[in-house]
Amino acid sequence: MIQLTDSAVSAVKTALSRSAQPAEGLRIMVQAGGCAGLKYMMGLETATREGDAIVQQSGVKLFIDKESQPHIAGMTVDFVTGLEASGFVFDNPNAASKCSCGKSFS
Predict the structure, then answer these.
(1) Considering the entire predicted model, what is its pTM?
(2) Domains of the chain: residue spans and CATH
(3) pLDDT tens digits, 55-66
């Protein structure tokens, strides 16, 4: 359903270990908004919700809600660090177009 690069796995593990509150994994979802129509949302998650798909990779648990699943099927998530910006990058084969920041798509 979704793949994390080694760099993304490392970033998620770091976030989980530094979290002030216990978390089971990372939630990735799609919501209406952003400059291209849909935007990616991510956050630490404490429990499974009804309808979630759970993907485990390299010791990281991902939670994906039912409505987001078709939008991100086959997506690869990377974490990049650079001089100008650092953060998660989404390579989504379902995106017909995306905004210049890469956080929004249609």
Answers:
(1) 0.87
(2) 2-96 (2.60.300.12)
(3) 999 999 999 999
